[in-house]
Amino acid sequence: MPHTSHHSRNENALRCLAIVPVFNERGSVGKVIERLRRALPEVDVLVIDDGSTDDTLRRIPAGVTVVSLPFNLGIGGAMQTGYRYAALHGYDIAVQVDGDGQHRPSEVRRLIDHIAEGKSEFVVGSRFLEPTTYTTYRQTSIRRMGAWMLRGSIKLLTGLTITDCTSGFRAANRRVIRAFAHWYPEDYPEPEVILLLHRARYRVSELHVKMRQRRSGQSSIGVLSGAFYVLKVTTCLMLDMVRKPWPREKIGGPQDIPAAAAVDAAENRTRGDNDDVHTQEPHPAPAWRGPAGPGRPASPPV
Q: Which stretches of the chain are DSSP H helices?
């Protein structure tokens, strides 16, 4: 590519995927994708249509890869689908970009650079990391209180200060992509994965970003359900303290997929890395790719 900037060199060296989960985002999805393609032509775009009931699919520009789920799975199922796609196709970095237009392409680039430079393995784009954010990004008092409670819960359980733990604007490296492809929380997963990644000793960080206000579509969390959401997520965080996050022995290894093994071996030789993290890092595909096992009768013979 003709780009010669520092940003472009970093991104050209790595395969990056923008995962755009959408559910009834007919009013914004087209603009979101066009902005991404125009500002970041080197980043591939994958749209996960999570069972939309309107004409969202018709608003997606031609030439964009789309996975259309047969019914609504929720953000957890949609994002796991995207991470599985990223793992199977060997992407180095995956960025979650909401289809409602809140996430700016310029900030997508910053998240990619943060991961590409090795500053962390998983980075959350925060609206609230800088002290003046509440004057530039409006929230209801109920949502602000809920975010404060979840922030306190994660701080208590992990020691991490994540100011915007419900942000859906986040980027992951290849190791995290593989973990998410194997398993991803189903309901409101954003706070949970921070805790689970920390427990699994992945490097998690936060980066201040600018976001637009939602102008179309509907948030998956209503005002009236905010209190129940906080209670449910807090309970899940407590249960996650005893969960074994992403057990390696259940999902095989890179040797099960020759292409993945070759890429990992080449990277290790190039870096001269003696750490066994890369050689032991599991690849999720064997667990969910391949022929299905023989079925059993639905009921015993009469």
A: 6-12, 29-39, 74-88, 105-116, 133-136, 141-158, 174-182, 190-199, 226-240, 258-271, 277-280, 285-288
**Do 177 and 39 lie in a common domain?**
yes
- Distance between CA atoms of residues 214 and 192, nearest Å: 24
> For residue 220, which amino acid is it?
S
Residues found in the chain:
302
Question: Could you tell me the pLDDT band of residue 212, with boundaries at 50, 70 and 90?
Answer: confident
pLDDT above 50 (res 150): yes
* Amino acid found at 190: E
Domain with 172, as residue range(s), is 14-249
* Contact between residue 171 and residue 197 where contact means Cβ atoms under 8 Å apart: no
Regarding whether 219 and 112 lie in a shared domain, the answer is yes
Between CA 258 and CA 239 the distance in angstroms is 37
DSSP 8-state assignment for residue 58: G
For residue 231, pLDDT over 80 is answered with yes
Displacement of CA 23 from its chain's centroid (Å):
16
State whether 170 and 23 are in the same domain: yes
How many Cβ atoms from other residues are within 10 Å of residue 69's Cβ?
Answer: 16
Tokens describing residue 254: 């890179």
d(CA 110, CA 113): 5
Average pLDDT over residues 242-249: 69
